[in-house]
Amino acid sequence: MSGFVxxxxxxxxxxxxxxxxxxxxxxxxxxxxxxxxxxxxKLGHFPEMGFHxxxxxxxxxxxxxxxxxxxxxxxxxxxxxxxxxxxxxRNPRVLAAVLRHRK
Length: 103
Fold this sequence. Notes:
alpha+beta
C-alpha cells in the first residue's frame, strides 16, 4: 500500500507536466514524473517536511518544491493526499483560486 494518494485533478496536472516536457524530451519527462513520485513517497513518510503558505490557503496544506514544481498536499490525511502539482512560477492568485476549489 502506498503512503499517498493523488487527487484526480493533481493526477491530470502531472500528466500535463509530462506531456509538456515530453514534447521536447521523453527521458526528461519520465525523470521529472519519477522525481515527483519519489517526493510523494518521502512526504508520505515525513509529512512535516513541507512548509505552509498562508498567503495561498487557510487550509492545513503544506507545500514542497521539486525542481521547478510545487507539490501541495494535506499532511494530516491518511494516506497523505497530494492536492496539486504546480509550476512554481505560477501566479499565486491562480494557485490560491485553484486550491480554494479543490476538496
